[in-house]
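input
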Amino acid sequence: MNRALISCIGLLSALAIVQPAVADEPPSKPKRQRAAAPERAAPAPQRAAPTQATNWSGGQVGGSNGVSSVNNNFVEPGAYICPPGSSFGSNCFETPFSFSGHPVSYTIGPFVGYRLQFGNFVVGIEGDASYKKGESSLSQSSSTSLVVSSGSGTGAFSSSFLRTDQFSGSVKQGWDYSIRGRLGTLITPWSLLYLTGGVAFGEISGTFAYTGTLYNCFASSGCSTSAAGTASTAVSWNDTRVGGTVGAGWETEIAPGWKARAEYRYTDFGSYTKTFNLSTACSSCAAPSSGVSIDLKESFHTFRIGLGFDL
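output
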């Protein structure tokens, strides 16, 4: 019993000593709470990238150059001289003379126009002038033996002749002009695809010279060196033809106010005929003066590049 009492007294004494020590300890600091992550701000709406405004309305002047492939067709089916007693198409014929050519020429010239823009569509009118030199020519010589029979029975006889024909001809396309409408669509604010067409004017010049000479021929001595008859002409012309032109192109802005272009066009002046007289020196020729009839057909293809300035 004494042991139990002593144990209880010892336990109480220990508690009495420990309690004030625990009370003197500083209170433990509470654990720091993690700061809440700030909410992310919503991204600001992005502004659309500004588009460059290009105005296709207004006037324009400029120049272009390129190459022209010219189609020249020249046919002369009518110059001849026939000896006495003969008839054309029976025992006297024409020597054909014709040629064609496709010369390629450098071309250069100015243009001026006005355009209006309606949304993505651009309409306008334009005029231009271009110089080129597309020339084709031919020289030709030939000789033909002609036999003319006359009479019948024992009184029949025949006469022999030699006819020489000398031809030369040329045709050239020079200046051309056009007044055209243009209709295009913008594939970007800075690039235009367009069609163009209208009326064209072309300078077409040419020359033609012909000399047909008849010589009497004899079985014993051959042909005479003196002419029995001649037919000749030497002419030239310079015309302005009216035709049509169509094409397509691409135009783009390369700097404010400056636009580059590339364009293809086909121009056709159609078919027409030039007629001239022959000067004949022949006392008894069957068809001393056939006249000259020249059939022409002229057109050309052109590819150009150019530079224009907005007014």
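quick obs: Residues 1-25 have pLDDT under 50 and may be disordered.
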